[in-house]
UniProtKB/TrEMBL annotation:
It comes from Amycolatopsis vastitatis. Substrate binds at K244. GO terms for molecular function: beta-lactamase activity; serine-type D-Ala-D-Ala carboxypeptidase activity. Pfam families: Peptidase_S11 (PF00768). InterPro entries: Beta-lactam/transpept-like, Beta-lactam_class-A, Peptidase_S11, Peptidase_S11_N. Keywords: Cell shape, Cell wall biogenesis/degradation, Hydrolase, Peptidoglycan synthesis, Signal. This is Peptidase M15. The lineage of its organism: Bacteria, Bacillati, Actinomycetota, Actinomycetes, Pseudonocardiales.
Amino acid sequence: MARTRIPPVAGGLAAAVAVALAAACWVAFPPEVAGRAIAARPAVALPVPWPAAGQASAEVQGLGSLGDHGEQRPVPIASVTKVMTAHVVLKDHPLGPDDAGPEITVDEQAEAESSSTGESTVPVRAGRRIGERDLLALMLVPSGNNIARLLARWDAGSQEAFTGKMNHEAAALGMAGTTYTGASGVEDSTTSTAADQLRLAREVMKNPVIRAITGTANLRVDGVPGTIVNTNTLLGREGVIGLKTGSSTAGGGALMWAAKARDGSLILGVVLQQNPGGTPAAGLRAALETSERLIAAIRRELPAATR
């Protein structure tokens, strides 16, 4: 069989195109070594105050990566886990932007766990019927661990079966450094990287229900006492419109965030391992403060960098 020869000019053009495509793929889908993603090359380099410790990742949608900071190794992510829980529940039981969803009966386990003093919970009574959307809000806004596990049992029959779904979805999203061992994040064995969680943030912000719930500063739910306040106190500041906090002794403070740039572009980011070993409250404060400085700098520097 005769071989077709590529003329020198065409061959050079093909090589140039191949190099350009490879560079673009590196930014959007960084390669992996030993199961861990190599840090993405930033599409735009900004002089921003990355955290002094821990790890972080950020991007501007439509523009690309702002880079990964710190060693992207799996660490406990605490209640940031609940973002994947919400994602899996809504994949299995989709809701329209204004849908309340099916009513779910609170079981005795969820009520018993309400009185736990060792984790974040929401007071609910067994036998009470609460809509899917309200339960998602009780999980994401005040970070109710007992509600996360209730939703897992409702969706998959057991938390263990639901966790399998979480890991399957993580693999589908290319989150190679992530392992989920529960629906709430209370287990230190649930670990991930900032780069992986940024992939998840990119996916869940496509869902109007998650966007609306995580952007709610406070709410009331029938049958649940008092006003429920969002643990993400950055909402409404520096353009922040969501997403989810996390804190534990082992993991320190964590925050997955979404913010609007001054031109309306969506900025997404994740900060992990802030003040690990301290109290969860101190870790959360550190994550919020670090994230606020980072977001403010990105919003300030982005216009000049993209002109």
